[in-house]
Amino acid sequence: MKEILITGASGMLGSDVAKGFPQADLLCGKNDLDFSSLFEVERFLKIKKYDCIIHCAALTDTRKCEDNRETAEKIHSDVVDIFNTYSRKLIYISTVPVWDYYPYVKSIYFETKRAGEIKTLSKKENIVIRANIYGKGGLSDWFHEGSRSGRKMHGYSEVFFNPVHTTQLSFIIERMVSADSNGVFSVSSDKVLSKYAFLEEMKIRCNITNTTFVSSNTIKQDLAIKNADMICSHEEGMNLLTKEYENK
Predict the structure, then answer these.
(1) DSSP letters along 130-153, please?
(2) Angle, helices 166-179/234-245, rounded to nearest 10 degrees
(3) How far apart are CA 156 and CA 99, in angstroms?
(4) What is the CA radius of gyration of the chain?
């Protein structure tokens, strides 16, 4: 049996990934292990060397990344060196490779993720997964919480993406571990839509009526995965999301 460690196991993706590996060791937050302390990370991993580390932990708030560059660098990049030393395989959850798109406006979040990818791929056994994700948390929670308060909410009409549900991606990760895959894999849904259109669809599916929701075009950005290696059903993903919120 493979010894597996999942970081960020209480997060939107990590909690779904953990369901597929019931025997895995889980790190659920700073109280379990503070990734901003590389000394603590190395001390922890010296005790038990893992066959596979699935690194779901991340600082996903782009504004927090700008304000906390050093922390973002440690969580997204520096820690990879330690993972490579104390595990046989690392599965690194990355993001959309906007650094390959034009125009590209640099940000700490994307630059540190890019650096993490490079370090991950320095070891041939490792995997980089590029994806946009959604699920119970993040953007979906923001929308539902806003709807309960009845406040006016904005959705970007010129930010396009093709996200996959966390449950869909977790199944893919299970298969990768089982097959002992390696390399870079881009994963997307079969539908590209704006964030405004995504939230409009969620509003209809979840029967959200007590909020004012308006389109905003203050920024323009392409976050859609291009030439995906694996494509998931948008319909399936939205059905999963609807079930997660049907009792809220």
Answers:
(1) E--EESSSHHHHHHHHHHHHT-EE
(2) 120
(3) 21
(4) 18
Token code pair at residue 162:
């093709």
SS3 100: helix
As given in the structure block, the two tokens for residue 5 are 């460690």
**φ, ψ of residue 75 in degrees (nearest 5):** -70, -40
Q: Which residues of 124-154 are buried (b: 16+ CB within 10 A; e: fewer)?
A: eebbbbbbbbbbbbbbbeebbebbeeeeebb
Retrieve residue 170's tokens: 């977790």
- The answer to pTM > 0.70 is yes
Residue 189 to residue 90: CA distance in whole angstroms: 24
For residues 197 and 158, the answer to whether their CB atoms sit within 8 Å is: no
Length of the chain: 248
Using DSSP bridges, classify how beta strands 127-130 and 133-134 pair: parallel, antiparallel or unpaired.
unpaired
Phi first, then psi, for residue 233 (nearest 5°) are -75, 125
Q: Other CB atoms closer than 10 Å to residue 3's CB: what's the count?
A: 15
Q: Which helix (H) or strand (E) holds 80?
A: helix 79-86
Please give the C-alpha separations between residue 77 and each of 7, 32, 56, 123, in angstroms, as whole numbers.
14, 19, 13, 14
Q: Which of 135, 142, 58, 129 is nearest to 90 (CA)?
A: 129
Bridge partner residues of 20 (DSSP):
none
Quick: pLDDT tens for 86-134: 999 999 999 999 999 877 888 999 999 999 999 999 999 999 999 999 9
Bridge partners, 127 (sequence order): 91, 183
CA-wise closest residue to 91 among 10, 190, 178: 178
